[in-house]
Structures are given as C-alpha cells and as structure tokens.
Request: fold
Amino acid sequence: MNYKSLSIHPFITIACFALAIVACTNEKKPADNKTTHKPKTLQMITVQEIIEAQDIWGEGIVSIGSVFLSGGNYTKAAEDHIDNLYGYNLGKVLFKPTLASEDQFRLTKEGALSYFVGHNPRFVEDHGFAIRPWSKVRWERVGAHIEGNLAIAMGNYFFTPQGGGDEVKVEYTFGYTKDASGKLRIILHGSHLPYAPN
Reply:
C-alpha cells in the first residue's frame, strides 16, 4: 500500500469541493428562469386627477354628438371615448346607465357602446345618449373617497341639450383605478335620474 498517495487524497477532495462551490456560484441561470421585476407601485389617485378625468369624459360626450351632427363616424368616436377612459382592458367594468330599464346593468364594452350610440339589436331600448346630442356637461362634485389606487366619486352632472333648452340633472357614482402606465380608468359608472316623488 502506498501511504504517500493516500495522504494526498484529502487535499484533492477538498480542492474539488471548493471548485464545485465556485462553479455553482458562477453558474448562469437558464434563459427561461429570468429574474422578474416587480411592477412599480402606483401612486395614490388625487382629487385633481378625478376632476380632470371627469372633465375629459364630459368633453368626450359632447364630441361624440358633434361628430354625429357633422355626419362623421360617431360610433368610432364613442369607441375611442370608451377605450380612452374606461378600464375594459383591466377587467370587468360595472356600467349602470341612466336611461335603461330593461338592460339596467351593462358588464360589457358592447353594452356601454350601445348606450352611447344606440342601433344595437341586442339593446333595443338604447337610442344613443351621446348622440342626442349635448353641447355641454357641467359637474357638481359632492365628494370622493380615495384608497390608494382606488377612488369613488359622487355628485351630479348636468347635460345641456344641443340647440338650447334646460339642463338635464343626473346623479352619478364613478369608480376609478390606475392602469400600469398610471392612467386613470373608470371601472364603475353608475348614473341615475333624481328621485321624483308622485
């Protein structure tokens, strides 16, 4: 038996173990196991952002009516309005329009679009709220409750008919959230005519 060769073995074992540790530490991760980065935390919604979003919503309703009066593609204008302001790209939107009694609650973009422009055989009661048309939307804000990336606002909004006439007063409750880019999106739209006692 060669005792010299036996005495070398522990050193070889230790060296191999050390090299294995270094190799494991420096080993690259497979391409399909990439490190994922957590999305940035969205900033809290502000009252000013809600006010701006509401003003843009009102301008959009007026614009759809203007496109209708000029003979343009008002359906496309309404689709753009919905895509720009509502959160259908995030999930379900709770939409309760003002002048609806048969299909009171709309859970699809199609239902919302029908309410704004009508002419959808699936929603026969819709005559196109946005193509009435209106010349102005005025907001009377009662208040907002904000919890981080979720906000609920309530109040009245008033619609002035194109060509003159009295304002139409409507009660609203809107819910908002921010998408991944930080843009405010409507996820709840509740609209009602004020109670009229007999």
